[in-house]
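for the writeup, i need someone to sanity check this before i put it in the appendix. the sequnce is what the collaborator sent (i think, or maybe the updated version? ugh). structure was predicted straight from it, no edits. if anything looks off just tell me and ill rerun, i have time this weekend
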Amino acid sequence: MGIEIMANMKQHKLGWIGIGRMGYAMAERLAKAGCDISVWNRTQSKAEPLVKSGAKVVDNLSDLAGCDIVFTMVSTGKDVKEVLFGASGVTSKRGAPKIVVDSTSISLEESAEIRGKLAEKNIQFLAAPVSGNAKVIKANKLTVVASGPKAAFDAVSPYLDAIGRGSSYVGEGELSRIAKICHNVMLGVVIQNLCEITVLAEKAGMQRHAFLDFLNKSVMGSMFTAYKSPALANLDFHVTFTPQLLLKDIDLGLSSGRTYGVPMPTTSAARDQVQTLIGHGYDQDFSQLILQQAKAAGIELKSENVDMGDGL
């Protein structure tokens, strides 16, 4: 059975572009699953450790043109267009992948533009944003939402499933971008509310970790509240998602709300708090919102130095 699965994972030749915190962990999962995967990164040295997991590192983007499926996980829509259509991009020379899968957080407009340009080259495009971070990937809990041609999703889904715990197909076009935007809007609203109630509990006399322990065991607890509880209790703000990136996604959500005529008053209030956090110079993890909330409430927080696990 195991040999059969391994053979299936080698059915397509894969290419991977972008080895940041997320891209590295995702490509590593595919390599360790036995996929035939070639990797390119602007700074090649960051990709080289993947060789020990079974990946091949290529010198040029055009070296990926012979792959069946190419994944992109870069910083912006502009970067996606550059690696695909630039002078030395994947589609710049003869030969091109059959399918491009993009997991970068970009706007609907950029995604649609990329889809159109690839269609002109007879390349199918799957928009496949993800929920999670590098730590979530290592815990096998990353989820993927995809949209585009159903046939492309069917071909790619075994690889998406190998990256995490499952993928969801939501339809044609850019619907997965809307899904991811909605997801990250909720992220901003929930973390702000979680900080508000945690500060309220502390000012009333509770220890933060005790309140959060109760919350996480209750019907209101979630994987997200449990995952962020150690940061809120111990003031450990190592970066999982920066305030700047959260603000970008909230703005995408508000823009979509205007486009589709959906009022989003709660999101607007959360956006103001994230913008204020950035204005005050906080630039680590978005959970630093608790420091801002505590200051507004007239209290100073100290680390409780408790072991709450990692919530995963």
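The CA atoms of residues 2 and 8 lie 10 Å apart. The mean pLDDT is 93.
thx in advance!!
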